[in-house]
Design a protein that fits this description.
The protein is 39% helix and 14% strand. The protein has 15 helices and twelve strands. Helix 1 packs antiparallel against helix 3, helix 4 packs parallel to helix 5 and helix 13 crosses helix 15.
């Protein structure tokens, strides 16, 4: 990593979210600069040779490093409390970088079976083509994780907490102990609550994955991802791999996420508050069979979630609509979604605008029915990512669809 920040040590995370970046240029810009360049002019051939050989700090080619991307990486590492971070093109690129950069044929992974559909697809199908096997277990059953570990071959435990879309919460510290006793790494996808609420590294995770597309950026404008961890894992192992593989984050996208992170803490607090009010309201609606939200006392991991997540439940919730058959529940879910006039019908989450989706046919649509059932994603499930609108307007929008189920 080059261009170290000049901030004093000991600053709080809220300050780092606004201030952490590389040093200002000679022009003294107050907003971090956007360096739109693919390459960098070297002073002489000797300097170029040393920099390309990693013998001297400096920028050579944006696929290797870029000042704007470095600012994003420094800011995120500061928030997460890790030694380093590496930016990627998307959240899935971050997970791909992690598994392909650290694992080899013959290795074994233990992962939650209730994660984002694309993560399940990548670990369960794509990775298998390269000789890496994955065992999927219950997110919340520590004994199941322990039983699945294969001494000598299990190299990675991978969890997502809370999960997408059912908001299952895992005990990060307990999984870290399991992983380390087996000489394996624990990786945690923290996209749902971000370091503003939860820092998996604090609980023992070796690697923390982010989809910067979501709450880190906050307004649904660009795609981005990142992996945080130690310098050895992130800069030496993953940094060497990304230089060849090209999963890199673009400077423009890095700049947009960098600026979005300045409001991360106040957004997460406000959106979590709105989500709790909406979840409590949904629990009272007769057309709703169940609400999944860690901030609710009815959530199975409520106490653990609040302990790990700074006392807040996050901004994403899901709920099951009633229906006698899977087909009826799917039709009812579609009806609720289609009646919305304010909430955006889109699969992205983490936006300041509230969004709504049907996971079984979108984010988990590529999975088999057996995989969806194992993940708990039924046809009546609706996911809502709560934004910053006036809460009662969002309630009224959902009420239109729920009321229509009487017809």
């Amino acid at each position: 990593m080059t261009d170290e920040s000049t901030l004093p040590p000991g600053l709080h995370a809220q300050t780092l979210a606004v201030r952490q970046a590389i040093a200002r240029s000679q022009y003294g810009e107050h907003s971090e600069a956007l360096y739109l360049t693919s390459s960098y002019v070297q002073s002489d051939a000797e300097s170029a040779a040393r920099r390309f050989a990693n013998e001297e700090a400096g920028y050579t080619y944006t696929r290797t490093s870029n000042p704007t991307v470095t600012s994003f990486e420094q800011r995120l590492a500061g928030l997460e409390g890790t030694e380093a971070a590496i930016g990627t093109a998307t959240g899935m690129a971050a997970i791909s970088l992690l598994v392909f950069g650290l694992l080899k044929a013959g290795d074994h992974v233990v992962a939650s079976r209730s994660m984002f559909g694309s993560t399940i697809k990548l670990l369960g199908s794509e990775l298998a083509r390269f000789g890496v096997e994955t065992t999927f277990v219950s997110q919340t059953d520590i004994q199941a994780w322990k039983t699945a570990i294969r001494p000598g071959t299990t190299r990675l435990l991978f969890a997502e907490t809370p999960t997408n879309p059912l908001t299952d919460v895992c005990d990060i510290a307990a999984l870290a102990d399991l992983a380390h006793n087996a000489q394996a790494w624990l990786a945690v996808d923290n996209s749902f609550v971000t370091p503003a609420l939860q820092r998996p590294s604090h609980w023992g995770a070796d690697l923390v994955v982010y989809s910067g597309t979501k709450f880190l950026e906050g307004q649904g404008r660009v795609l981005a991802g990142a992996v945080c961890g130690s310098r050895v894992l992130v800069e030496e192992k993953l940094g060497a791999f990304i230089r060849s593989a090209g999963f890199n984050l673009s400077p423009f996208n890095a700049w947009v996420v960098l600026k979005g992170m300045e409001t991360l803490f106040i957004r997460m607090q406000a959106q979590s508050s709105h989500a709790l009010a909406l979840a409590q309201w949904l629990e009272q609606q007769p057309q709703v069979a169940h609400v999944y939200y860690p901030g609710l006392a009815s959530h199975p991991q409520h106490a653990l979630a609040l302990q790990q997540q700074s006392g807040l439940g996050g901004a994403v919730l899901s709920f099951d609509v009633r229906g006698d058959t899977p087909e009826a529940r799917r039709a009812h879910a579609f009806q609720v979604i289609n009646q919305c006039q304010v909430i955006s019908k889109t699969t992205n989450l983490g936006d300041t605008k509230t969004t709504i989706s049907h996971p079984a046919s979108t984010s988990h649509g590529r999975l088999t029915e057996e995989q969806r059932q194992a993940a708990g994603v039924g046809q009546g499930l609706v996911r809502v990512s709560v934004g910053l609108e006036y809460p009662e307007d969002i309630q009224n929008d959902l009420q239109r669809g729920l009321s229509a189920l009487h017809g």
